[in-house]
Amino acid sequence: MASSQEKISVYNLADLKNTTDDAIPNYLNSLHFTQSHRLTDVRLALGYSALALAAACFAWDHHLGFAATTHLTACAVALYTVLNGALTAWMLFAERGAVYEGSAPGPGAGGQGERVRIATATPRRNVPVYEMVVEVVGRDGARTTARVSRGFAEWFDGAGRFVAAPFQEVLASAVPVIGRADPKRAVVKVEGEDAAAAYTPEMLDMLARASAAGSAAETATPSGNGGAKRGGRRRKA
Fold it and tell me: Locations of Low complexity compositional bias (predicted)?
């Protein structure tokens, strides 16, 4: 997807971050990266276990009465505390703000290359700066870390629409494994200049309008082709 037609408030830092976070797996999966859902699966397992325990506690208290289930309720409260503590620890020490884990495409059919982990944050309150920590583990076990800090204005236009191309260029230019998978987006760094150009709101508006016009042209009915519609498939960001 070259740009999103959904608009968000450019003054809402949480919306800016969440929209950008959602674009990362869309972009990398479109490059044939293989996403791992391990972190999410463990979080869901812990959360649903705690919820099931609370529901069971309510059910036996409702049917048997509080006095008859005092010991069960005490055990359930203790176990619920353990589960929530484990969930909190998992989010703080295992996830560490990660929004993506996966593997780059490797040589051969179905081969897997480097493992990629991307954690994001907006550390400064009311400052529209997006920070990414990208950890790459090579097939030989070597680990490299890239830190990227950019303003949201580089890939959101003035109306609050997400424009994918500038954001993809930031990732492809800062992380070599992504740049190799999408060389068209990788911007060669010139000495004394930033790796990716700073996009002004006017430039982003032009990109968004061009994307919308391109989408309309792809779905338009050609005159003289018997009314047959011709559609184009676009890679999602």
Answer: 211-221
Residue 231 lies in a domain: no
Which of 157-161, 178-182, 196-200 bottoms out in mean pLDDT, i.e. has the lowest?
Answer: 196-200
**φ, ψ for residue 79 (rounded to 5)?**
-65, -35
Q: Helix or strand or coil: residue 143?
A: strand
207, 90: one domain? no
- Is 221 domain-assigned? no
Which amino acid, one-letter code, is at 90?
A: W
Burial profile 169-183: b = 16 or more Cβ within 10 angstroms, e = fewer: bbbbbbbebbbebbe
Q: Are 137 and 149 in contact (CB under 8 A)?
A: no
Same domain, 54 and 21: no
Q: DSSP for 101-116?
A: EEEEE-SSTT-EEEEE
Q: What range does the domain containing 52 cover?
A: 40-94
With beta carbons less than 8 A apart as the criterion, state whether 83 and 106 touch: no
Assess whether 83 and 196 both reside in one domain. no
Task: Convert the pLDDT of each residue in 42-95 to its tens digit.
Answer: 999 999 999 999 999 989 888 888 888 888 889 999 999 999 999 999 999 999
Strand partners, 116: 102, 136
Neighbours of 156 (CB within 10 A): 28
Say if residue 117 is in the same domain as residue 197. Answer: yes
Whether 229 maps to a domain, the answer reads no
Tokens of 236: 């999602």
Q: Is the pLDDT of residue 131 over 90?
A: yes
The answer to whether residue 225 is domain-embedded is: no
